[in-house]
Input
Amino acid sequence: MLNGITAVDGTGRLGMDISGYAEWLMIPYSNAATQDDTLYDVGGRLSYTVGGSNFSVPLLPDTITVKPNPSLIVHYFHEKYVRGDDPLTQNVIEPTVPFTLAVMIMNDGYGIARALKISSAQPEIRENEKGLLITFKIIGAQLENNPLAPSLTVYFGDINSLETKTARWLLTSTLKGTFYNYSATFENINPLGDPQLSLLNELGYHELIYLVRIDLSSNDDGLDDFLVNDDVDENDMPDRLFSSANGSDVHPVIVGNVTAFKLLDKSTQPSLKRYKVVRLTVVTNATSWFYARVENNITNANLLNDENLLTVVRTDGRNIWVEKNAWQTTHIKNIFLFHLLDFISQDSNTTIEISYNLTFGPRNMYAPKFTSSEYMTSVSINAVLGTTVLTLKAYDIDNDTYTFRIKNDSFEQFYVEQNTGEITVARTFTSVGTITFEVVVQDLGIPSKSSFSVVIVKIHDVNMTSSPSNTTLPIIVITSRSTSVTNTTSTRPSIVMTNRRTITTQVNPNYTASTRTNWHSIVPDTTPSSTSVDVSEQSSTHTLESSKIIVMSTTPRNITNKEEKAETTPFMVIPIAISAAVLVLLVITIIVLMCVLRKRALLRAYVI
Output
């Protein structure tokens, strides 16, 4: 940039009594610093002529640092088949299935690509022989695994050196169709319009067969990878596999030869679910990623028949990821096809035959559930091995068979019988306290589902109650004209009244009880201590815990003790509310009588 000076190529002029300056903008090319920061010395000389005399003055030198540039490699991936309404079918509207448009950007340089943003255009139809009206709609977008607003503009942010980022769009089409030719253009804007200053190093466009997963532990980044058909053929067979973890990591894919696809077994689970097991055999190279495809003429493509692809297991035990590396389609040439992608690693340069077991059937939708989210019980510290503590209960909406287990495999205090859910003592107890553990119920559906519950077991001394859910109440003993409670526990004494004439108690296992209408007698096996109890009344079934028990004596009866016989008194409990009413009435009567007597006394005094 020049100010006051007309040029700096030897023809420039600077007028009298005018100051001026010149500024240079230096943009280094990528080869000025390929991997690391590089230092450059910048200097020069100022030459000029005044009054016919030549002058030359050195400029003050300086050092500048040139940083490496980013270098971007961009790959677009687009599905060939677009599923939507078929214009050739009448009175039928086929469902619309979203298709994928994806872009993968790798920074192959050693500089940081800062604040990168890509604005892509929607797919365009260049040729439409039948002149049909076709439109596309974006229904979703994501960067890596993060959802974005449905837009073809994606802000990638900073992309570090040798880092790869992917973005994906989901689109729908009003009609079904096929993309045959692809093209993509990329425009990079720089201050000088110099193509050598472009950060774009490579641009590619690929026919996407399927979004798969490189699930080898060393390369799995948790993102979908791209199985593509670069060498276009009439059978649409894939030939390359692009990794989303590293844009430069591209694997060749071998097409395997399917030698067998046959039904092995029809099995029925106890829940009456029916499954089919199919054996697939493939011959392929010993060390490679390979793809296999075969027409499925054994199961039904209509999912209403509950013949879903559930599991794919290699004969060496490796599970193939269903819906990622094993899937089915009907849109390729209108044939029901099974697809498989797998990696074989064997110490051999020859071909190898490998087999897979495919399971088809109804998909398990619901997990079994416990009847309670928490179970509480108690057991004596002296309980012997095998003592039943609790029996778990569960249910399954799918009617699958299910089993029980303790969640922590190293937990050895209790044992759970897997079929019945019975929990028993597996180790003797050393102290009182509370033990809490989790139990799991798991069904045998495909895929298997499970849920858990919590079990709380209170370990108590022999003199304590046996179960919080069935607490033994203190014993009520009725003797002649007195009421007492035998309390064999440390809990607060209480009695329960079910109506105005009957007292009901829960009897300790050490006692026997006999009951008649409105009468209750108890025969103790040991001599208990007696505790006086208080009574209060509520309505219906009552717990009585205040005031003294009121006993109305009628005909005496006997209660037997091992050590002595005491005369017992049949009784009925007068409700406190009635007693209070009687008492109030009595007080009122007394007050009235006192008032009458007082008036008579005053009258007598007046007469005198």
About this structure: Confidence is low (pLDDT under 50) at residues 465-577, 601-608. The first strand starts at residue 2 and ends at 3. The radius of gyration is 45 Å.
